[in-house]
Amino acid sequence: KAEPIDYVEVxxxxxxxxAMIEELQAIEKNxxxxxxxxxxxxxxxxxxxxxxxxxxxxxxxxxxxxxxxVAKGFLQKQGLDYSEGFASMARIKTIRLVMALASGKxxxxxxxxxxxxxxxxxxxxxxxxTQSPGFEVEGNENKIYKLNKALYGLK
Length: 155
Description:
Blueprint: H1 7-10, H2 14-29, E1 33-36, E2 44-45, E3 47-55, E4 61-71, H3 92-105, E5 128-129, E6 144-147
């Protein structure tokens, strides 16, 4: 089965709705955004949901689903909405060097996954995004979110 395309389709399915709530909880826990009014000289970026099925080792579909709230960063304009794009990550040569050293010196290597790591990144500019489709704050539907930290999809 393919991943759903939009939130309207998944709002009727409990497993997908739970995945969306889990994503919003991670965003809130990390204090990624603050509900506010849009300043008169700023524009907001739309957000959308992206859905991913998780697979078991045997290739069957797992019960766990992944929903990610992403900004439509392709609408951002360099010099106007952001100054430069940057994603901090190690170069492959550096990773290979560390692995070669560890192998030669018989150091143990460990792998870890930092859940929602991207959401912890700071922002240089003020960025405003629309409310999450399907999860608008009742009574504040006309407000938007100011991002305190990075959101998937930004440049």
